[in-house]
């Protein structure tokens, strides 16, 4: 795995943990740290989404 793979994996893990907190406790950690829908929190959400798309590609590449 290269650096991009590890970065994508870390972002998706962070996103998954954040969604777990939202579902279990109604607490959005990204919003608590960076502000509710601030430009920085929006960038974090976009990066997590792009990382998830990349990992879909990565999973198809690895499964061959």
TrEMBL record:
Key word tRNA-binding present: no
Keyword Transferase: no
Taxonomy, superkingdom: Archaea
Pfam families listed in its UniProt record: DUF378
TM spans (from-to): 6-27, 39-59
Record keywords, A-Z: Membrane, Transmembrane, Transmembrane helix
InterPro entries in alphabetical order: DUF378
Name of the protein: DUF378 domain-containing protein
